[in-house]
Amino acid sequence: MHFILWVFKPEVKMNRLTDIYHTTESYLFPMVEEEMGEITGKMKEFLRILEVVRPSRFLTDALRWCGLGRPMQDREKIFRAFLLKSVCDFPITKLLIENLRTNPGLRRLCGWEYSGAVPSEATFSRVFSEFATEQILEEVHSSIIKENCQKKLVGHSKLLLQGL
After folding, report:
1. What is the pLDDT of residues 131-157, one digit of tens each?
2. What is the extent of the structural domain holding 143?
3. Which of 45, 89, 90, 113 suits a disulfide with 95, CB 3.0-4.6 Å?
4. Residue 63 belongs to a domain
């Protein structure tokens, strides 16, 4: 098994993450609550993740409509739903879709105004497959580490542990 050991300098603060946390607590949450009513802990967690990830920057031209054929479903909304599925621990996509169709708050946070606008299970499956092919999650992970931990990273090494 391979393990990667990350070593961080403790004296360097995570300014960007602290700023995002402060901004979401002070400005974003009150604004969303004013618009949608009370928001749950999971909704707050989801909004924090959206602020750190900023999904639209990871959608390459391969994931955008080229103008030929039927327009594709909005990939950013589906990517947000993919993140929501993880935050809410929905084990299957069908459960995610049911929640998006019945919970206006979650649906609006993903970008769909009406329940009928939420894509089908087949569309979600196809788009999730595209995300895997384009290695979107790997790119998100790498970018977040670079943006938030690069100054703190001293070094890393791969350790091969036998017998585990």
Report:
1. 888 888 788 778 777 777 766 544 444
2. 2-55+75-160
3. 90
4. no
Q: How many whole angstroms separate alpha carbon 57 and alpha carbon 53?
A: 9
User: Would residue 66 count as lying in a domain?
Assistant: no
Q: How many domains does the chain have?
A: 1
Distances (CA, A) of 114 to 15, 31, 69, 87, 126: 37, 21, 24, 22, 21
User: What is the C-alpha separation between 56 and 50, in angstroms, rounded?
Assistant: 10
Tens digits of per-residue pLDDT, 31-85? 888 888 888 889 888 888 888 787 776 666 554 544 554 445 578 899 999 999 9
Q: What pTM value is reported for the model?
A: 0.69
Q: Name the token pair of 2.
A: 């391979």
C-alpha span between 47 and 29 (Å, rounded): 8
- Round to whole Å and give the CA distance between 55 and 84: 12
Q: CB within 8 A of 156, min separation 6: which ones?
A: 4, 5, 6, 7
